[in-house]
Design a protein that fits this description.
The complex is a heterodimer of chains A (104) and B (277). Chain A is mainly alpha-helical and 104 residues long. Helix content of chain A is 96%, strand content 0%. Chain A has helices at 2-22, 25-103. The N and C termini of chain A lie far apart (88 Å). The mean pLDDT of chain A is 89. Chain B is mainly alpha-helical. Chain B has helices spanning 2-14, 20-54, 74-100, 103-124, 129-198, 205-248, 257-276. Mean pLDDT of chain B is 87; it is low at 6-15. The chains are: A mainly alpha (104), B mainly alpha (277). Chains A and B meet through helix 1 and helix 2 of A and helix 3, helix 4 and helix 5 of B.
Chain lengths: 104, 277
């Protein structure tokens, strides 16, 4: 609906421009002034149509940000496997030291 | 027995390494989509500049001259979309990096460390240390299997979660681009109206220079619109390609037709982009 409006406005501005080119004198100047107004109104309507999409874009961007966070979390969880193995190795080292102390 | 079964199950998963190639292609395509959009916006900026110059009119030049009123500022709104496509591009890059990351070496190193510690411990306890040495191999295999299993599951879950926002973008971006193309037509028409008014006389050097500049602007607008059309085609295909790559995590024999079409579309965007440079 919004796009239909902007398209019609842009089409009107273009036709007024064609008409201005085909005429001379005062009517041409009036048509050019009208074209200028229509151009500004078209840009305003397009800007408004883009603003109307903002919430949907933000929602999509937020969901993709969450997906990126989830990748980081999964990465940390998998890196945790090597970390846990290293902790087990440290525990074995500690027990070994204790055993040596007890035996010695 | 249970340990042997676990090793078999998890090492079985380890063999299913993630499809880094297809994720690489997905990441490359989203990068091309983003680059195409930025390229079109850069040309929009040049066009808007000409529009502002032709509309400076007879007013005195002031620091505030050549500024477009906020309500008519289509360009700044289009630039905001670039940030969204940057996030899309970052998402596919993160997927790709996650799929290609070498967890195995880290786990192998930690397992060897554990193996050495356990061997020393067994020797200190007076047990048969060689038998304990096998533990490092088992831990390494189980650890790697577990890592691949978790990576596979995480990829599937994350991609399922991202499917909807990607589908939303596939609808939003072409709508944005239709508006961008319309704004370009509107600005160009206005610039041409101004250009007709001040075009230097025929057969003059000034005329040639003037026409060359306006001609370049017309060609640039045409290229920007073609670039946006290529972006539209690519982003429309992105959801099915993304879904297809996710499905291929479970079925490696799945044909990746949508991804192949997306790659071809992304190459077309790149071609426009390269031409412009």
């Amino acid at each position: 609906m919004a796009h239909e409006l902007t398209e019609k406005l842009a089409g009107l501005a273009s036709r007024v421009n064609d008409l201005a080119v085909a005429t001379t004198g005062e009517p041409s100047r009036e048509l050019l002034a009208l074209q200028k107004r229509l151009t500004q109104q078209t840009l305003e309507a397009i800007a408004q149509a883009l603003d109307a999409q903002d919430a949907a874009y933000k929602k999509a961007m937020g969901a993709l940000d969450d997906a990126i966070d989830a990748i980081d979390e999964a990465d940390e969880a998998i890196e945790g496997i090597a970390r846990k193995i290293r902790i087990a190795a440290k525990a074995a080292d500690a027990v070994e030291k204790l055993l040596k102390k007890l035996v010695g | 027995m249970t340990l042997v079964a676990l090793v078999l199950v998890l090492t079985g998963c380890a063999a299913r390494v993630p499809p880094a190639g297809s994720l690489d292609a997905l990441a490359g395509s989203t990068r091309a989509i983003q680059a195409g959009m930025v390229e079109a916006n850069d040309r929009f900026e040049d066009l808007q500049w000409q529009y502002l110059v032709f509309n400076a009119g007879t007013e005195d030049l002031r620091p505030g001259s050549f500024a477009i009123p906020e309500a008519q500022d289509v360009l700044s709104r289009l630039r905001k979309r670039e940030a969204v496509l940057q996030v899309l591009s970052s998402y596919t890059a993160a997927l790709r990096a996650f799929a290609a990351k070498d967890y195995a070496s880290e786990i192998e190193e930690a397992s060897l460390d554990l193996g050495a510690s356990v061997k020393d411990l067994a020797a200190a306890a007076g047990a048969e240390s060689e038998a304990w040495g096998v533990l490092a191999t088992v831990v390494n295999e189980v650890g790697r299997g577990l890592a691949e299993h978790r990576r596979q599951e995480a990829l599937k879950e994350v991609m399922a979660r991202a499917q909807k926002p990607i589908e939303a973008l596939a609808k939003l971006v072409p709508e944005t681009n239709r508006n961008a193309a319309l704004a370009m037509d509107t600005l160009l028409n206005d610039v041409l109206t101004g250009a007709r008014r001040v075009r230097p006389p025929a057969d003059s050097a000034a005329r040639l220079a003037f026409d060359a500049e306006i001609g370049r602007l017309i060609v640039d607008v045409r290229a920007a619109k073609a670039s946006l059309a290529a972006v539209d085609r690519a982003i429309t295909r992105l959801p099915s390609a993304h879904h297809e790559v996710r499905r291929s995590l479970d079925d490696r024999k799945l044909s990746l037709d949508s991804l192949e079409t997306l790659i071809a579309d992304a190459k077309r965007i790149n071609a426009f982009y390269q031409k412009a440079k």
